[in-house]
Amino acid sequence: MASTESPAGGLKVGIVGAGVAGLAAAIALRRIGHEVEIFERSEFKNENGAAVSIPPNGGRILKRWGFDPVASGGIENIQVRRPKGDSLEPMAPTLSFSNVEELYGDKWFFYHRVDMHRHLREMAEAAGAVIQLGKRVDDVDIDSGEITLKDGTKVQKDLVIIADGQHDRINAKVTGVEIPMKRSGQTAYRCLIPMDDILADEETSFFFKNQPPGFWAPALPAKGVMAVTYPCRNNTILNVLAVHRKLGQHASSEEDIVIDDWNFPATHEDLERVLDGFHPAVKKMFLKSPEVKVYTQMKRDPLSKMTKGKVVLIGDASHPMLLTHAQGVSSSIEDAAALEVFLKDVPASEGGVSAAPSEKLLQRLQEFEAFRLPRLSATQILTDPVVPGPQAAANYAKQEAEIRKYYSGPLPPTGSMPHSPPICQFFFAYDVRKDALEFLETGAPNYKPTETQPEASAPAKAPTEPTPEKPAPSSSTPIKDTAAAAASSVQSKIAALEKRVAGL
Ligand SMILES: Cc1cc2nc3c(=O)[nH]c(=O)nc-3n(C[C@H](O)[C@H](O)[C@H](O)COP(=O)(O)OP(=O)(O)OC[C@H]3O[C@@H](n4cnc5c(N)ncnc54)[C@H](O)[C@@H]3O)c2cc1C
After folding, report:
1. Pocket test for ligand 1, best of 44, 47, 48, 52 (most atoms within 8 A of CB)
2. What domain range includes position 400?
């Protein structure tokens, strides 16, 4: 991929971490002509991870950059089925996402993280980013932009992007305060099951035979256990995440260990205990997995800052989030897309990397923070699920009050359920590039893209859910109409904005 829009003498940028956020930032910055060198501690010899879900707000950015969903084994999410874990009767109506592209401008894909990550890496390298593997960063000097590697090497840059994931420590230097990760109360068991094994067994094949791909999520709410499954890698693997709210085998008390390694082994017996009370066919299917992994889902309060000196935080280093609305990966990609807008015409420091950062760079980093932080904080808080029950209404109100400390734009009505139309509209219709261009031009957040949102003060109401017989278009007509109308004007508006901003 060629660099398309070079500022004269692009910035020399160092990126800490070649995860999704770091690679996305590398692609974005090469597109606008900056020099990029990534320092990644891993050798990527045994890449792991399970599946990731990328809804339209992340997907449309990848598409613009030339990411090929088919080459990455992407599977479209067409429906969400939510049976009771024991009887397998529907607990909630099936939701259809067959028209997600029509509504939100792009498809919703599932990938194996390894496939998606590999493609991003190829794209970053093809665009001219240098990726240094096996190079752990031990420290970054915020003011000078000096990166210190574990082997003692020091490298100085005009700008250092911190993308080293949720265990990042440099954020405390940016904000001036340590904000620890804390337990979410959820422990997640993970497995990957060959789809052929499921389909070859008549006791389990009926779960997926002749069904469009999508989420299949059996739950036992009374036991605090919810399983989320979806296919990846060209529909050859079923990804399973069995999450329990009541602290489980690997986190039985607050004193118990926190497992924050994506590859930590658990046993089939552990999984069987978690699945106590589930239908035998569900247990049989999940226990087909060759391996079981476990991790403690952690969360962190929003940070007060994303940038200081020559440093900017993105991805999980800045805003780790829970899985509820599938925004972890997409919000990292959005960060990169926003950097593509804000750093477009920022030249390298005249005195070289050892010089102080230019006024223009500092200003643009501040603008990036002012643009991204409110929405990211709202997203982090919204993805922390409110547990149903007698306290739910009060807890939803508390959640909204918390969001309002950071974000004044429109929100889905209080209490909107995951996957409901207002939630989808809030997350999936969001066009970060369009908003970033408008912010840069006007210096103010633009909430217009979400003007089709129901009013933030609207009373909570149940999501409109299509049944399998009655698919989404009819039940979601108001959103369809407004979203389609918005989508048709968005492209011409973006083109006009890009022209104007290019002249800034
Ligand atoms: C191995 C792995 C597996 C994952 N599996 C899943 C999954 O199955 N499902 C899911 O939803 N999410 C998964 N995630 C998390 C998901 O990728 C992130 O939440 C999201 O993509 C945001 O990405 P990020 O780049 O900010 O952070 P990450 O994806 O965590 O990437 C951070 C990168 O920085 C590197 N790094 C860390 N410290 C240093 C250092 N000091 N110096 C240099 N490099 C450093 C890490 O090796 C990693 O490559 C996984 C993450 C990892 C690292």
Report:
1. 52
2. 12-43+133-181+301-442
CA of 133 to the centre of ligand 1 (A): 14
Q: Which residues line ligand 1 (CB under 6 A)?
A: 16-22, 39-42, 48-50, 52, 113, 136-137, 163-165, 262, 315-317, 328-329, 332
Are residue 283 and residue 206 in the same domain, yes or no? yes
Last residue of a domain, one of 298, 331, 347: 298
Whether residues 425 and 316 fall in one domain? yes
* 361-390 pLDDT per residue, tens: 999 999 999 999 999 999 999 998 887 778
Q: What is the pTM of this model?
A: 0.88
Does residue 250 contact residue 259 with C-beta atoms inside 8 Å? yes
Say which range, 263-272, 354-363, 475-484, has the weakest mean pLDDT.
Answer: 475-484
Atom of ligand 1 nearest to the CA of 320: 19
Q: Is 104 strand, coil or helix?
A: helix
| pLDDT given for residue 254 in this prediction | 52
Helix, strand, coil proportions of the chain in percent (round to 5)?
35, 20, 45
- Given 298, 323, 349, the domain boundary residue is 298
In this structure, the answer to whether residues 223 and 338 fall within a common structural domain is no
Mean per-residue pLDDT for 171-198? 92
